[in-house]
Amino acid sequence: MERELSEHTAQDQAPTRAQAAQEQAAADAGGKGAQVQFLRLLLRDAPAVEYERPLVRARAAGGGAEELADLEEAKVLALRVRTVLSDRRRRESELSALFETANDLAGMRDLDQVLRAIVDRARNLLGTDTAYLTLRDTAVEDGDTVMRVTSGSVSARFQQLRLGPGEGLGGLVAETALPYVTANYFTDSRFEHTDTIDAGVLDEGLVAILGVPLQLNGRVIGVLFAANRRERPFSHAEVALLGSLATHASIAIDSANLLEGTRAALEELNEVNHRLTDHSRAVERAADAHDRLTDLVLRGGGVEEVEAAVSAVLGGAVTVYDASRHAERLAAPELAQAAGASRSSGRAVRTGIGWVAAAVAGGEPLGAVVLEGVDLDAADQRILERAAMVIALLLVMRRSASEAENRVRGDLLDAVLDAPERDPDTLRRRAERLGADLDAEHVVVVAEAPGAHPGRLRSAAMHLAETSGGLAGARSGTTVLVLPGPRPAEVGRKAVSALTAAVNTAVTAGASGPASGLADYAVRFLEARRCLRTLVALGRSGEVAAPEDLGFLGVLLGGDRDVAGFVDSVLEPLLDYDRRRETSLVETLRAYFAHGGSMSRAKDELHVHVNTVAQRLERVGRLIGPDWHEPGRALEIQLALRLHALLQGGVAEAEEAERGGA
Predict the structure, then answer these.
(1) CA gap 445, 531 in Å, rounded
(2) What angle do CA 318, 323, 329 make, to 5 degrees?
């Protein structure tokens, strides 16, 4: 577009043949005709050199001194008029450019965009090699200005300059709030030269520099520069032009800062609004949780309902761990440590398994509430903590009710075992209220755990009876359970497993059943207790046995008989001989009886020669008497051998020996 304008201007300035003819005619006419020539030259904006042409023609035509003086005066006036018109056109162009700049800056909202537009427009308006802008560093109080944006710059060092007050041309402008211009920066001594600034200017190759202040409300906020890489004197008009641009720039920067501040304030307000909204929602959730938990407590709701209510309010999955529900999980190291931390702080704690809040009543730990699957803010943590308090209240209430019910179950069990014939219908009704059907098949389990905490063992037994529809109580230092089921061994193993997990020590039990009617429970109790005493006599703690597991051995061992003494009285010579000589007389005698008195089959089991078996049996006869193989004596010896096996190897080995003897 500039090329087209230049072409049009050149065409306007080039005289046509008609114009040349008119100018020649005016020159020939002389006087006023010559003055018309200058008006025509002004009209077509002819170059200054053409204003000499009328004088040259007049001199060539032999014009007089007066005529030549008039032409000289007319030429000078015409050139002055031409200069005024040119200045006005330039000023009009500059004002138009400033107006466009102000219009462009007014539409910009981003500060960096505004600064970039300012330096680009300054460089274009003044036609300089570079333009750049520095701003006050608000982070410090010493008044330094730092390079913010450049146009046409090629030096990284120059683009990172910092100017202190009075340092360099820019520092002087910032300090005095006055414009400064230099045609040659390095030879100008009006301002303080520093090594850093001079090195940056030299690296950029700048020579002529013009700087004007950016002022806002009487305070300098920065400096706008235009610079060339060769000597160039900047005119007053150029200084004024850059100053006007700086004024517009200051307004635009202030507007951008205000917009930025407004944007930041709006963002802050939005953030506050979001926080208020979140807080309001948290308050609503807390009120909802409070209403739900209060309603549950007033309606007599249980722990499971509280779990569901808290899960609905907070999301995620809520689980309550206590001595009766997930007791083994509550004892796990990670959960136990988290529950301890929650008890100490009185707050919910975050762990790898989720959020944990301890349920405590009167300083007594009752359990823990675990929330998994979601994260919680402070308000939601308070909800979980309140839920833990409600859980603790429910657990205390449940424990009180359970203790009362357990007393009722214990009293009912005593009545069933001691005097079922007195009022069987009343016993059945009492059992029905506790959820037990005494006419159905039940197994009686008698257990003991010498190393266990009595309270935990009793609580575990009561919980087992309550959840399975049975009865529980304590008799003669043992724990007695009446549990539904047709198979004594299976019911006994399940009961021992549950009790062992609760007390964390070995539990030994005898089981008998199923009971057939109320009168049969006392008989089953005696059988189960006899099985328990048999296991204890054999030293087999931690095992479970029913009468069918022990056979006739249960009858023999069921009382307070001295089993070890009987074995020693029969087999002591052989046992002593084996201990001293490291022989196998007892083993040989057992194999002999196990194979029906056949030495050939006994030697196969013992992996020895038949003569060795004969020699060992001969030694047996010399130690315990030659009548050892007679029927009466042989029965006594076989019984002693089986009891010895029980004492040494347990019930399973005794059963195996019993089957082999058969």
Answers:
(1) 10
(2) 60
